[in-house]
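Risk register update: the risk of archive-format incompatibility is retired. Evidence:
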Amino acid sequence: MTATAKNTDNIIAFQGEPGAYSHMAAIAKFPNMEVLPCQSFEDALAAVQDGNARLAMIPIENSTAGRVADIHILLPGSGLYIIGEHFESVRHCLMGTEQSSLDTIKTVTSHIQALDQCRHNIRAAGFARETFADTAGAAHYVAEKGDTSLAALASKLAAEVYDLKIIQEDFQDEGNNTTRFVVLSREPVDVATLKGPLMTSFTFEVKNVPAALYKALGGFATNMVNMTKLESYYESDSFTATEFYADIVGHESMENVARAMEELRFHTKHVNILGTYEQERQRG
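Archived output:
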């Protein structure tokens, strides 16, 4: 249900239409909050920036298809902080109109990530692929078209919202297909209030010298800090400045993490702390 209340402190924004997996993640993590669907990731971030929502639920990676949203590019300049994470099991349903069947379907449409997560089954079925902005939007499109040759890959919730027939459940290639989401806020969480194992996410740019990355990361090894994610990307199209996104277990209030981060800062041009938050799934 789309949020209509004036109490924006009880609203969480997400990218996509009602029935999207981000919608499901938002209500699973925050069942008492109202939801605000947004057309793009930038719009979802802007809703929090502008005070129209308190939080945003953004997908960051998928166990089958890898990176989902370029959050490491969008977040550093947004002024928002990661305050939590959520893992949502993604079970894609093949859906169409009431008259549709496996025999009538020629084309399947969905978000590029959903198509990639079902690529082997799509190929085996002989379907053509058509990308759409989001999974629920694809379901909405199929419902509006009323074409028995067109099907969508989306959630059970999307099938209910747009009154589509589920032709085949669990159409994804991998049975344990899971998407990791991050929760964003205008204010960082007070680390003193957090319980259990913590994660810290940050971006950094290494200096343009030989072995810069090796030197920058050496402190994490020598100080026994577990780095669970490291991904490189280019912030612009110049291919001259490589940025990195990283997740580590712990926080700078811990001595070993503080030493590792101090060494990182010495060997880098800048470090952007994106947030510290409780682990929803323990990494170590």
